[in-house]
Amino acid sequence: MTLVAERPVRTPAPATPKRRRRPVLPYLLIAPTLLATAYLLLYPLVRNVIISLQEFGLPQLVRGDAKFVGLANYARVLSDPEFWAVVRRTLWFTAINVVLIMVLSTLVALLLVRLGRWLRLLVMGGLVLTWATPVIAATTVFQWLFQSRLGVVNWALVALGFEEYRDYTWFADGEATFGILVALIVWQSIPFAAMSLYAAMITIPQELYEAARMDGAGAWRVFSTITFPMLRAMFGLITCLEVIWVVKAFVQIWVISQGGPGQATTTLPVYAFQVAQSLQRYDLGAAVSMLMVVLLVLALLAYFRQLYRQEREA
Amino acid sequence: MIGRISRTTAALVVFAVSVFPVYWMVLTAFKPTKDIQSATPTFLPLPITFEHFGTAIAAKGFFSFWRNSLLVAGGAVLLSLLVALLAAYAVARLQWKGRRGFILMVFVAQMTPWEALLIPIYVIARDTGMLDTLWMLTLVYFMITLPFTVVTLRGFLAAIPVDLEEAAQVDGCSRAQAFRRVVFPLLAPGLLATSLFGFITAWNEFAFANVLIIKDQDDRTLPVWLSSFNNTFGTDWGATMAASTLFMLPVLLIFIVLQGRVTTGIVGGAVKG
């Protein structure tokens, strides 16, 4: 959420020899956090790796006598054209979402900077409302908006003269469902990105803009020579976060389409879950989710690099 | 002038797009069924009816789903507040070896792709007989909110001047007393904010609730129930939207409570001290 700059902790007063022994208190204080992280995070992660190296289906789940099979699951997943179709779809899905989110959020942030007090409060209020909407509530509402017979979207499209949308069943068509999921995720993601960018933009000194305008720079030139370069780290940070969030988006897709129709909206997390739950191949599902983790770690490394840069520049 | 008009128009469009889905949800929840089913939708909330809220509340298990969601989210938040407060104090106030490493671990833990851990956690829950228990769900939500809670509390703690505590210790308080009497009151708004955000995360969580509660349908939480509205309400969109509205209500209230109050509380308190 907020990135709090490291506050230098006061160095202890010149220590007398007696006080030099290692304090126990800090370690006692962090012990519960360490224990919880070890059991509830590290252990499941290790277990996932182990399952992905075993033959682990329903019989093994019940009897608990899974055998190690080395990298066979990975070999099987990686040689499956369906997996690569899912990877391509995930990358495509991520690219479309993140580009839309970043472009629209930047526009909204630039707009917020230029608005008067009341309009700005109005728009921010709307954004906060969107932000506060729980994923499940938003997902349910989008299903209602795009209903074939009584949905308001079809009504509006027909009213605008697109007669072919009368009773159009969005969720029966792969590309249409894909489009709705993109709309849903972009709609939900803009508030965070736009408000963070806005908060960063108002820290840029006004004089810079004035100087640029005196030199006759247009809006695009001001943005590309001042706003963007000054907030490069911030843009990088938010882009990384959005990439991570979009790649692992699961709930929206699972609730609206379960990856369907066909495989049209099956991205990596949905695929891993499908393989594990529906086919009860926990081993293959674990392997797919480990491959997803690898993909996310790459994005995460980029994120931490940006974070480091941001803290250094701030 | 033209610039101003286009800016105003753009602002209104952004506002309308952000608000419309929620508006439509609430509007549908209050609309009489015949208006919902009419060929031309009405966009104004007249006349209104509470019929759909009645249907939603009367649905089988509605109250136990609410209770489950409250128990799980509340339990997870209390647990993570307690555990995180200890760790945040160690990180923000004490000097020890391994501190940087610990902070890094918390940051990494905060970015955990939980969606990738659905399978092992399901298997672990099954092996330990924790499947279909709210305990397991509480523990998972506790871990999901813990890193964020540590990071935020550490931020709030760091914002409280150390001098206050040291002054109290000079006046004869022990470290624990100084914390309880001086730091804790200043930290209260931060604790509230952090716990409410954690509560929202746990309240909204769907994926684990969907995987860990299978057999005993009475133990489900609200998000899972809401996602299966087709089984409950069929095509009764009025009742579905009423249920969604009720589900969103606590989250919205929390956002309103938090609006601005937290940061001013912290800053005001610290400056006065």
From TrEMBL, chain A:
It is a multi-pass membrane protein. It comes from the Bacteria. The chain crosses the membrane at residues 24-46, 91-113, 125-146, 178-201, 222-247, 284-304. Residues 87-303 form the ABC transmembrane type-1 domain. Its main location: membrane. One of its GO terms (cellular component) is plasma membrane. It holds the Pfam family BPD_transp_1. InterPro entries: MetI-like (IPR000515), MetI-like_sf (IPR035906), UgpAE/MalFG_permease (IPR050809). It is found in: Cell membrane. Keywords: Cell membrane, Membrane, Transmembrane, Transmembrane helix, Transport. Belongs to the binding-protein-dependent transport system permease family. This is N,N'-diacetylchitobiose transport system permease protein. The lineage of its organism: Bacteria, Bacillati, Actinomycetota, Actinomycetes, Pseudonocardiales.
Automatic annotation (TrEMBL), chain B:
It is found in: Cell membrane. It comes from the Bacteria. The chain crosses the membrane at residues 12-30, 70-90, 102-123, 135-162, 182-203, 237-258. Gene3D superfamilies: MetI-like. GO terms for biological process: transmembrane transport. Keywords: Cell membrane, Membrane, Transmembrane, Transmembrane helix, Transport. Residues 66-258 form the ABC transmembrane type-1 domain. Pfam families: BPD_transp_1. One of its GO terms (cellular component) is plasma membrane. This is N,N'-diacetylchitobiose transport system permease protein.
